[in-house]
Design a protein that fits this description.
The chain is of the alpha/beta class and about 500 residues long. The protein is built from 13 helices and 17 strands. It folds into two domains: about 150 residues, NAD(P)-binding Rossmann-like Domain (Rossmann fold); about 325 residues, Dihydrodipicolinate Reductase, domain 2, CATH 3.30.360.10. The mean pLDDT is about 90. Bound molecules: 6-O-phosphono-beta-D-glucopyranose. 6-O-phosphono-beta-D-glucopyranose (BG6) binds next to loops.
Length: about 500
């Protein structure tokens, strides 16, 4: 869709990694597809001094390096729309200057008042910048809409999220806030809705009568990279589960919305969060497993343990692996266990939802041991995006031996379709004002409320152990015990790793 309105896109934290790797390449991709307004300017704002030309040069290299789209014929035209200014984030005077600069750009380039403020900054500025913007009137919408995009984490726990909420909602309206959860921008995450609600054959089975349990995995082979400082104050629960994996859970579990209107979808998502069965502090050790990677050797390469990573406290208790078992107390899901796990330095990168269907009431055939594992629907979010249905077939020959076979669909088979990146999709939606794929305040607060007992129990080691696991393995063995009474355990999806140990077939 082409929008004819004008727009100024202001990125706070413009000298940072996210701007370079994701935001500017995604904006360029929208530009070359003519999905940005015709009158458009991007103002990068950061503490480090740079000229417009230096910023343009850096962003030109970034677009070429982190290419979202093959066609780079418009890069020179695009970067002419880029401007840069320095700011002291906690000084009101610089916000007055920012306002003047925006007015100047608007006059010069004949842009209206529509403005996106994207906070790609450390989280301690999420309360500060919006307050100062409001103090100089930059949140006012008389001359055009104003939207604020906030990266995660939205708070550090329930209490800090409530404080942040109050600070933001003092000056800004809920419909001006767009909280990015980049998992919601992933094509295959959205496809969960389409798979469920466009096919008559899945939805009748999608409930406690036919589903034995649901498993959601998001594994990463990388460690904390250069983000040791941030990660050590966060950990897997806050970094991945509080946001991405609970959102994926909600899309897997929600009721059909009455329409595709943002409010209709977000209301159903919220209901899932509100139905999460509270975890009691006493049971945390049984339903939540945490681990931290230890040094190891992967394919002959020495890999440092988490505590040896740059920026990490050598006595750190921060978890790099977390697995949870929980329930959703509503009519659809009563007593169906949900298992989620995520970790860094696992054997591969894979994110998937696995629906495990119940076994038949009576198994006639041999191979009884496997009957629970016969029917699974695997929704692969990344990589090798696709869907896999596993079911039992007769082994040819005498007798009635059963084996599991796969029926699969891979997104790459739609070869003429380019899959837009999550940021491209979310930036585009935020420009259109479509908030469907952004987390609403109540969802975020419910997620923190749900995790509060776990966060508190994990504060010290004596209450719940922190297990070590060698880098390159599937996390602490203890997490296998979470899926008790279930003969198949977690799905270990990447039996056939490619030689580089990264690509993992569906
Ligand atoms: C981010 C986390 O939100 O998601 C990172 O902060 C993590 O720690 C990343 O690596 C994973 O995203 P993706 O899209 O690579 O699965």
């Amino acid at each position: 869709m082409k929008t004819n309105d004008s727009l100024i896109y202001v990125i706070f934290g413009a000298s940072g990694d996210l701007t370079k790797r994701k935001l500017v390449p995604a904006l360029y991709s929208l530009f070359i597809q003519k999905l940005l307004p015709e009158s458009f300017a991007l103002l990068g704002v950061s503490r480090s001094p740079a000229t417009d030309d230096e910023f343009r040069d850096n962003m030109k290299s970034a677009i070429n390096e982190f290419k979202e789209i093959e066609d780079t014929s418009g890069v020179d035209e695009f970067i002419r729309k880029l401007f840069y200014t320095t700011i002291q984030f906690d000084q009101i005077s610089t916000y007055h200057s920012l306002k003047k600069q925006l007015d100047l750009l608007r006059g010069l380039l004949k842009l209206g008042g529509n403005t996106v403020f994207y906070l790609s900054t450390p989280p301690n500025l999420y309360g500060v910048i919006p307050q100062y913007l409001a103090a100089v009137g930059l949140q006012k919408q008389e001359d055009g809409w104003k939207r604020l995009i906030i990266e995660k984490p939205f708070g550090y726990d329930l209490e800090s999220a409530l404080i942040l909420k109050d600070r933001l909602l003092k000056d800004w309206k809920e419909d001006q806030l767009f909280r990015i959860d980049h998992y919601l921008g992933k094509e295959t995450v959205q496809n969960l809705l389409v798979t469920r609600f466009s096919n008559g054959m899945f939805e009748p089975l999608w409930n406690r009568n036919y589903i034995h349990h649901v498993e959601i995995t998001s594994a990463e082979s990388i460690g904390v990279e250069k983000r040791g400082g941030y990660y050590d104050s966060s950990g897997a629960l806050r970094d991945m589960i509080q946001n991405h994996l609970l959102q994926v859970t909600a899309l897997t579990a929600m009721e059909p919305p009455s329409s595709l209107e943002p409010a209709a979808i977000r209301n159903e998502i919220l209901k899932v969060f509100q139905s999460l069965r509270p975890i009691s502090r006493e049971t945390v050790k049984d339903v939540a497993i945490r681990g931290q990677y230890l040094s190891s050797t992967i394919k002959g390469m020495p890999i440092p343990g988490y505590r040896e990573e740059k920026g990490v406290n050598p006595d750190s208790l921060t978890e790099t692996y977390a697995a949870l078992k929980f329930y959703i107390d509503n009519w659809r899901w009563g007593d169906v266990p949900f298992y989620i796990r995520t970790g860094k330095r696992l054997p591969t990168r894979v994110t998937e939802v696995v629906i495990h269907f119940k076994a038949t009431p009576h198994f006639l055939f041999s191979g009884d041991k496997y009957r629970q594992s016969l029917n699974q629907l695997v929704i692969r979010i990344q990589p090798d995006e696709g869907i896999l249905l596993k079911f039992g077939m007769k082994i040819p020959g005498a007798g009635f031996e059963v084996q599991t076979v796969n029926m699969d669909f891979h997104y790459y088979e739609l070869s003429n379709q380019r899959i837009p990146s999550a940021y491209e999709r979310l930036i585009y939606d935020s420009i259109k004002g479509d908030s469907t794929l952004f987390a609403r305040t109540e969802e975020v607060l419910e997620a923190w409320k749900f995790l509060k007992p776990v966060i508190e129990a994990w504060k010290t080691e004596h209450e719940v152990p922190l297990f070590g696991y060698p880098a390159g393995t599937w996390g602490p063995e203890r997490s296998d015990d979470l899926i008790e009474g279930n003969e198949i355990g977690w799905r270990y999806p990447c039996k056939n790793l490619s030689d580089d140990g990264i690509y993992c077939e569906l």
